[in-house]
Amino acid sequence: MDYQHWLFEVESHVAHLTLNRPEQRNRIGDVTLKELALITEEIKGNVDIRAVILRSKGDDFSTGVDVSLIGDMIGSDRATFKKNLRSSQAVLDAFESIEKPIVAALQGYVIGGGLVLALCCDFRIAADNVRVCLPEVKRSIGVIMGTQRITNTIGKAHTKELVMLGNTVTADRAYQMGLFNEVVARDELENRVTTFAEQFLHLPPLAVGLCKKIIDEGQFLQRNGQDMEIEAQSKLLDTEDFKEAISSFFEKRKPVYKGK
């Protein structure tokens, strides 16, 4: 299927998802989100996909939400405003909840909604030319769809610095805050992200997916999170991958996982 704002292909068990609006500096619009929802369903339904790489064409990962979307907020009634935001939030929630590892490759400006999209990924590898900014406060609006994601990633103190000041920070500063897993030279970004994602091709996909689910959802359950771990692991007991992991260990051979 062809998309207006995205390039999408699957190669050797890795889904490559590319935001393809370089002339608009990869701004996120209504079509962008609607197509992301379709791609998300495609990824979820493809058992052959073991990992996802999210990247963008051009010099910048994304300079945020399209001006047209921001303009639509002005003059809209409160009910419509809430409905539209919940719809957009649902798209990001669904993408974030894909039970496969998602690795983001970041370059250039990562602003506003672009950072929120990156935070929906499990891992973020940034080029050393990255500049991060959440400028919403300077437009008299809050960080839409992102405050909790940022706080869960880097904690309250750093989140307040980014959100309440709206200043631009460098890749190194963002790494110190915990926004990125790694910072690499711009010309090394593609190779590093590919190598990172390929690590998951040698791991049992069902177990990787459940680990992600436990980490993402268990933090909100507190004590019940431990019960969630037990329930999740029990679901793996009858899988072929679990049996293969145990038998290959005792047989001292390399396991072959099938995602079953």
Could you please describe the fold and organization of this structure?
The chain starts with 5 loop residues before the first strand and ends in a 9-residue tail after the last helix. Helix content is 47%, strand content 15%. The mean pLDDT is 88. With 260 residues, the protein is of the alpha/beta class. The chain is globular. It folds into 2 domains: 6-201, 2-enoyl-CoA Hydratase, Chain A, domain 1 (Alpha-Beta Complex); 204-251. It contains 11 helices and 9 strands. The protein has helices spanning 30-44, 67-73, 78-96, 113-119, 147-154, 156-165, 171-177, 189-198, 205-218, 224-236, 240-251, and strands at residues 6-11, 14-19, 51-56, 102-106, 109-111, 123-127, 131-133, 169-170, 182-184.
Could you name the CATH topology of the largest domain?
2-enoyl-CoA Hydratase, Chain A, domain 1
Q: How is the main sheet built?
A: 6 strands, mixed
Low-confidence stretches: none
Strand-and-helix sequence, N→C? EEHEHHEEHEEHHEHEHHHH
Total count of strands: 9
Instruction: Order the strands across the largest sheet as they lie in space.
Output: 1-2-3-4-6-9
| Rg of Cα set | 19 Å
In DSSP terms, counting alpha (H) and pi (I) runs of 4 or more, how many helices? 11
Would you tell me the overall average pLDDT? 88
| Helical content class | 40-55%
- What does the overall shape look like? globular
CATH homology-level superfamily of the largest domain: 2-enoyl-CoA Hydratase, Chain A, domain 1
What is the architecture of the largest domain at the second tier of CATH?
Answer: Alpha-Beta Complex
Give the CA-CA distance, first to last residue.
Answer: 27 Å
What portion of residues belong to β-strands? 15-25%
Q: Could you say which structural class the secondary elements and strand pairing correspond to?
A: alpha/beta
Query: So what's the CATH class of the largest domain?
Result: Alpha Beta
How many domain modules? 2
